[in-house]
């Protein structure tokens, strides 16, 4: 199983970014992929999750209304659209999943919100 994130970078407050997570190497049909972030000195924070057939998705209250999760199964990709970014959104963002009894995560992509 491999998860590869991209799309991070430096953005000004109020700006937008779309992160991508390309998933490969597994054939499970019933799983969720989630986005998680970790800021320096803080623990991981769950942001959003979406299931394989996109019938169930949700985001944390802290980002609801600003962040949206979606997926394109033809591209094996899950997206995180982030709007109205704030300085406190600065963190390493990564995608993760659990297949059977194993947990997987990508290396992450850095998002820095600064003027």
Describe this structure in words.
This protein is mostly beta strands. Helix content is 0%, strand content 55%. The chain has no helices and 11 strands. The chain has strands at 2-6, 9-11, 17-24, 32-38, 45-51, 57-59, 67-72, 77-82, 91-99, 102-105, 109-113. The strands form 2 sheets. Strands 2, 4, 5, 6, 9, 10 and 11 form a 7-stranded mixed sheet that branches. It has a 4-stranded antiparallel sheet with strand order 1-3-8-7, with no helix packed on it. Strand 9 and strand 10 form a beta hairpin. The radius of gyration is 14 Å and the shape is globular. The model has no long low-confidence stretch (mean pLDDT 94).
Task: Give the radius of gyration.
Answer: 14 Å
Which percent band covers the strand fraction?
A: over 45%
Largest sheet: 7 strands, mixed
Shape: globular
Number of helices: 0
> Span between N and C termini?
37 Å
Question: What's the number of extended β-strand segments?
Answer: 11
Content-based structural category: mainly beta
Helix content: under 10%
Low-confidence stretches: none
Question: What's the structural blueprint in terms of helices and strands?
Answer:
Layout (H helix, E strand, L loop, with lengths): L1 E5 L2 E3 L5 E8 L7 E7 L6 E7 L5 E3 L7 E6 L4 E6 L8 E9 L2 E4 L3 E5 L2
Parallel strand pairs: 2-11
Antiparallel strand pairs: 1-3, 3-8, 4-5, 4-9, 5-6, 7-8, 9-10, 9-11
């Amino acid at each position: 199983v491999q998860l590869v994130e991209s799309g991070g970078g430096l953005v000004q407050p109020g700006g937008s970014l779309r992160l991508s997570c390309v998933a490969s190497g597994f054939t499970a049909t019933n799983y969720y992929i989630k986005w998680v972030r970790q800021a320096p000195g803080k623990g991981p924070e769950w942001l959003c999750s979406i299931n394989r057939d996109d019938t169930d998705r949700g985001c944390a209250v802290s980002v609801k209304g600003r962040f949206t999760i979606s997926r394109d199964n033809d591209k094996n990709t899950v997206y995180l659209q982030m709007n109205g970014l704030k300085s406190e959104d600065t963190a390493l963002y990564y995608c993760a999943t659990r297949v059977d009894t194993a947990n997987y995560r990508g290396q992450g992509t850095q998002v820095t919100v600064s003027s």
